[in-house]
From TrEMBL:
Gene3D superfamilies: Galactose-binding domain-like, Glycosyl hydrolase domain, family 43, Immunoglobulins. GO terms for biological process: carbohydrate metabolic process. PANTHER family: BETA-XYLOSIDASE (PTHR42812), BETA-XYLOSIDASE-RELATED (PTHR42812:SF12). InterPro entries: FA58C (IPR000421), FN3_dom (IPR003961), FN3_sf (IPR036116), Galactose-bd-like_sf (IPR008979), Glyco_hydro_43 (IPR006710), Glyco_hydro_beta-prop_sf (IPR023296), Glycosyl_Hydrlase_43 (IPR051795), Ig-like_fold (IPR013783). It comes from Hymenobacter sedentarius. This is Xylosidase. The keyword Membrane does not apply. The keyword Hydrolase applies. Transmembrane segments: none annotated.
Length: 587
């Protein structure tokens, strides 16, 4: 895709309201942190790199095949596989034939399994793209299942129903709806005519308005990224909106009793939503099950600095509640989370409880390039970054946690400054050393990757054991391209002080003129660096979470104008999370 009730019992309420303060699971569980640390290729499109060459991908699909997970996404000149959703191995592969004179090598792909075969099809408006198939994708062993597929489909999704019938869904437009059509499983020829599924209704649903501020200023909203999931006999057709460039990029869903509808919007929408925090956006992805039948949602996250389509990938716990509501749990979604190791209830937190320790803390650096200032590396915005003047060994950035703290993990997010690559390159790797110190004078090597030969643009290091420290220093050894630049040096663990007190004065002012929008305000908490706002359609279904930094108000413009909404808020600091405020009803 290149374009874009009454209150329930207190016990029930608190069962979901405590998700930010989980009991720590067994320490043997491994963790991960968004954005996913994949060896993303650089945009292959010169016209998209005029403001600077940069890594870019989006529109992911994760499919489980023969006990492993396969991840395909836009324009990567290949794909990844993993056995544990943690360690990913890239397989180089071009899916274009010589006569295909386009840059979009497997853009927004459809990936599906038929019998013992994995099949892949990329976006096109033409009728000359193949459907590829493989029974041995780890070895790049592919052949054509169909030479020219006769349905030109952008942002396609193939869905195999439990009765053996195959369907195709597609669409990426701010004018046309999503479409669906049955496809012959034997010949891959279309059966009957395409049928319109549904379109957007931004006059009803505020989150569907186009723009960073959901104001429809210059374009109508886009609908794209179809994905079908069947659960308990019902069909959940998912889609991305309103635009891949924006923090509010999200996935919505409509539900039907038949694969081609008629569809009805699920009351809880969008079901995948993350407009705040370090990593923003949770649109155009897919919903899949792991080895223990736990549901997950992988999706596109937004950078949008050097180009509208500068993006990364995020992985979120998901599921269906007892009423059949599809949800995605993005609470603390860019903090360390536990990877699966057995059956889990994703309404309960997979968040480790490890807090960010160095938000806007003092920084020292070896040098600075222009206006790419040091504290941009600790401001919790992936859009801003510090850059050293060079990529020389010895360039460094040092962060002060403010006091001796317990450190559990570090995430190093590299930025693209003066990169030279277009597309996927071989032999790309980062090398660095990470030091710790109690006093900022005597340093110990904490992590030594001076001999690393892998590409780690969002390297996440879970320490084998927690350490007590106050200072951390990241020293460059080798950059694959461009300057030594960091958009986020993020340190996780627990501080040595007290959690913040509960938020006071929380009010929700829902406008009379436009019920899609509300102004949320609260008294500043001088012990908090951020706040989590929870909202939903019932007191025990506060499934959406918005993290707000450095402010004591928020304009929430994502509501269904005809439904009441419930809200609560909690304060966050390096020592933990406050209790939440009583739930507020906004009619």
């Amino acid at each position: 895709m290149l374009r874009i009730l009454s209150f329930f019992s207190l016990f029930t309420l608190l069962s979901f309201a405590t998700q930010a303060q989980p009991n720590t699971p067994a320490p043997t569980r491994r963790t991960y942190c968004n954005p996913l640390n994949l060896d993303y290729g650089y945009t292959p499109i010169p016209g998209f790199a005029t403001a600077g060459r940069h890594r870019a991908t989006a529109d992911p699909v994760i499919t489980r095949y023969k006990g492993d997970y396969y991840l395909f996404s836009t324009n990567q000149w290949g794909y990844w596989w993993s056995h544990d959703l943690n360690h990913w191995k890239f397989i180089p592969r071009h899916f274009l034939r010589p006569e295909h004179k386009v840059y979009d090598d497997l853009c927004a792909p459809a990936v599906f399994v038929l019998g013992d075969t994995l099949l892949v099809y990329g976006s096109t408006h033409e009728k000359n793209f193949p459907i590829w198939m493989s029974s041995n994708p780890k070895s790049d062993d592919w052949k054509e299942a169909v030479h020219n597929f006769q349905v030109g489909a952008w942002d396609p999704d193939f869905f195999l129903d439990t009765d053996g019938k195959l369907y195709l869904y597609w669409g990426s437009s701010n004018e046309f709806p999503l479409y669906g059509q049955q496809i012959s499983r034997k010949t891959f020829q279309p059966i009957g005519e395409p049928k319109a599924m549904f379109g957007l209704n931004d006059k009803q649903f505020g989150w569907q308005r186009f723009g960073e501020y959901l104001d429809n200023t210059f374009l109508d909203p886009f609908m794209e990224g179809a994905w079908m999931t069947k659960h308990n006999g019902r069909y959940y057709l998912q889609y991305g909106a309103p635009g891949t460039e924006f923090s509010g990029y999200a996935d919505g869903v409509q539900v039907a009793d038949q694969p081609l509808g008629p569809f009805t919007p699920q009351p809880h929408n969008p079901f995948a939503y993350k407009p705040g925090g370090f990593v923003r956006g949770a649109g155009h992805g897919n919903t899949f099950q792991d080895a223990w039948a736990n549901w997950w949602h992988v999706s596109t996250t937004v950078i949008n600095v050097k180009n509208n389509f500068e993006r990364r990938l995020g992985l979120w716990p998901a599921g269906f509640d007892a009423d059949g509501t599809l949800y995605t749990n993005t609470t603390f979604g860019d903090y360390p989370h536990y990877l699966p190791n057995g059956p889990a209830d994703h309404l309960q937190p997979q968040f480790t409880g490890w807090m960010l320790l160095n938000y806007q803390r003092p920084v020292r650096v070896s040098s600075t390039l222009g206006s790419y200032l040091p504290n941009y590396a600790v401001d919790e915005s992936i859009k801003t970054y510090w850059s050293a003047a060079t990529a020389n060994p010895g360039e460094y950035i040092q962060t002060d946690l403010g006091s001796v703290s317990t450190v559990r993990a570090i995430q190093i997010n590299y930025a693209d400054q003066d990169a030279t690559f277009l597309g996927k390159s071989k032999g790309v790797y980062h090398q660095y050393k990470l030091y710790s110190s109690l006093d900022g004078k005597t340093w110990k090597v904490l992590v030594d990757k001076s001999r690393n030969k892998t590409d780690v643009p969002h390297d996440y290091i879970e320490l084998p054991a927690p350490i007590k420290t106050r200072f951390l220093k990241l020293e460059n050894v080798h950059m694959p391209t461009g300057k030594f630049a960091i958009s986020g040096l993020r340190v996780f663990g627990l501080g040595s002080g007290a959690k913040p007190t509960p938020v006071k004065g929380f009010v929700v002012l829902r406008t009379e003129k436009d019920k899609r929008s509300a102004w949320l305000r609260w008294a500043p908490n001088d012990k908090a660096y951020a706040y989590n706002i929870y909202t939903g359609l019932a007191p025990d279904k506060l499934y959406s979470c918005i993290m707000v930094h450095g402010a004591n108000d928020y304009y929430f413009k994502g509501m269904d104008k005809d439904r009441p909404y419930y809200f609560t808020i909690e304060a966050i600091n390096e020592n933990g999370v406050s209790t939440r405020t009583p739930v507020t009803l906004a009619k």
